[in-house]
Batch of 4 targets.
Target 1
Amino acid sequence: GQNIDQPTEMTATEGAIVQINCTYQTSGFNGLFWYQQHAGEAPTFLSYNVLDGLEEKGRFSSFLSRSKGYSYLLLKELQMKDSASYLCAATDSNYQLIWGAGTKLIIKP
Amino acid sequence: IAGITQAPTSQILAAGRRMTLRCTQDMRHNAMYWYRQDLGLGLRLIHYSNTAGTTGKGEVPDGYSVSRANTDDFPLTLASAVPSQTSVYFCASSEGDGTQETQYFGPGTRLLVL
């Protein structure tokens, strides 16, 4: 079957670093997306990993291990505006996205 | 218009009524999608269209229909609404060129079926 697992909720402190993990099982695999979704808003694209390794984009980095079916999103220098849900999605062999339920990140001052 | 628009923003609907959710994109994307998002669940694909004139069923298609008469518009119809269709509905689009398929989302329609 196809499955995406990520923690339901995480809490972190402003200015700190947080890592949100995601494991996936899909029929075929082409890449892994991370999206950010603020409460009451639409998901917005953060990153896309195809190859193993770490990709850095400013304060956000995303890591992929295809052999382990594992990814993480790393957020540095947390700001209050980073409070949101973070959605992990894997593309299957037909390039359809299989979505996780999302990780709600709460940032405390 | 810039990106994807959806209408209405929100709606309260009596059970048994017919309702069409509208979605329009101006990015000339080939592929379009309809998702529903419920608390505690991931986005679930209802229907999709890889190009104008074609549609396909997603994970949860029952009770919904779509059409894709042109590139820009992808309406979703609930033929006879039921309370379990209360949800937030997102339309999305992607270039549909068969490679990286980053999806871009509309603002959503919040639907309450009573």
Target 2
Amino acid sequence: DAKTTQPTSMDCAEGRAANLPCNHSTISGNEYVYWYRQIHSQGPQYIIHGLKNNETNEMASLIITEDRKSSTLILPHATLRDTAVYYCIVRVVGFQKLVFGTGTRLLVSP
Amino acid sequence: GAVVSQHPSWVICKSGTSVKIECRSLDFQATTMFWYRQFPKQSLMLMATSNEGSKATYEQGVEKDKFLINHASLTLSTLTVTSAHPEDSSFYICSASPGLENTGELFFGEGSRLTVL
């Protein structure tokens, strides 16, 4: 799997948008960008994924640059319960295993 | 989304004993499941890929004789930590996918925290 680079930690005020960046400059054409998060002492939770188009669901939005070398996960209105480690992962669909990097520790404060 | 359940959620055992952790896909069949280990303040590390009806594939550096994996059915995979030692204390997490025909999204269990005394 292509390697991703994420900031170690970020802070966000409750109610504001949280924008989490991810660099994946060596991504291949058939690799998707996946985002998962892990709340303390729980298993990872799927958030969103995309190939090249921007995606939105009830949890977040995913913005992928045109060259696909980076992406941003957007939590539009962060809440305290969004405090977690967020992992950006790239992989080929059909090769099921996920290889986790170090992720970004997001702290949402009142 | 699909549900993956692990049991037990936490276990404490004596050094030298063996511990079995179960991973079940509750509402879908999973031909492949994955086992991860996570030490405090670290990321998840993939240990092995569990294939139904065949031998598991272990990642480099993971001892297959110490971490026994059995995937006897399409909804159950087990991880047995044999002759556990304190350094095996960790958070063990499994994941499974409903299949290749969808987006390939993986669902994760709640994790099992093992403490070896």
Target 3
Amino acid sequence: DTEVTQTPKHLVMGMTNKKSLKCEQHMGHRAMYWYKQKAKKPPELMFVYSYEKLSINESVPSRFSPECPNSSLLNLHLHALQPEDSALYLCASSQPMGTGETYEQYFGPGTRLTVT
Amino acid sequence: GQNIDQPTEMTATEGAIVQINCTYQTSGFNGLFWYQQHAGEAPTFLSYNVLDGLEEKGRFSSFLSRSKGYSYLLLKELQMKDSASYLCAVRDSGYSTLTFGKGTMLLVSP
């Protein structure tokens, strides 16, 4: 199984709403990532979890709150977002450095988020 | 930090060969990846180079020269389904993190 799943596929939320994005993988990967991708732009790294601990936060605003409840799950909690946060949010997973040969990241299909 | 440069757009004909170049200037380097991304879909892994030379995988090949900070992705026997964005990504030396180039949009015409 080389699949990363994400739910929901699409999400529309108001600026006062609280919602969560979910990501799951069963490849035994111990590194998981959140990326944000705007139209016709490359993915931009937001957060990295390694062995369920937050290892990198790329200066992301606090209205985005990641959570890694176990080695298979990654959540992104959203609160008080702005319209400019509308984007495709991609989850990815890989083996951490030192545990595999290539460490390529496998991406989920993404959640298309629209903030109104 | 990382600075990664690749052409914005390229066009090619079905059945032809196309080479997509990527140059990078990085503070650390531990591998270069190529991903394919169709519109509205997730990036999918194509190839990986960490040592100089050519890696071949079917119709796709990737080349790396670390001394020149240069890589290319070679696509042979182009098919219409190869129309997509091709992302060059460099991995930092200390972490598993990737920094992506802006992507090259390839349009394959009949």
Target 4
Amino acid sequence: DAGVIQSPRHEVTEMGQEVTLRCKPISGHDYLFWYRQTMMRGLELLIYFNNNVPIDDSGMPEDRFSAKMPNASFSTLKIQPSEPRDSAVYFCASSRTFSNQPQHFGDGTRLSIL
Amino acid sequence: QQPVQSPQAVILREGEDAVINCSSSKALYSVHWYRQKHGEAPVFLMILLKGGEQKGHDKISASFNEKKQQSSLYLTASQLSYSGTYFCGTEPLNAGNMLTFGGGTRLMVKP
């Protein structure tokens, strides 16, 4: 089976621009997670969905961040407007129903805001 | 609040053993362990569900002390391929599949 697919792999843009990150979870996985990884803060959970419904978005840093999951096979994380401190690696992960299940990570998007 | 991992970094020679610890301030339902190589995604190693449970895969094993809210990862007879950063992810009681990751332990295995 194909793993979690993220796009783009790298994104470089200027401050103030809108950034959209995309994720396709593994088919049959009911949970989808968005993480951000930086040297300073480590691996942080931003938001997660269960059956396309956002369950916990307490990790979303500001209103500039938004996430959607219009269907079971696609999710987006949007930053508008972007700022240099948003530079990080953003990972999407998915897992099967409920607890005790491993999370499978995509290759990540390395985002640089100039 | 994220779990605390120790040590932060460790350097080994091939064939040596290592232990990585993960400690949480919350009551836990499970502990997950992942390994991440530089520039790559975290890769799942194992989940521990019950107090006192110990699991193993090849020469990597782990234990979970539910009462102490601690887990330890044991790497035996380390290989060069073990190099990377190890993260524990803790799942509190009644948190579904939501994990909080520790700060990571950087492991380097030298020939």
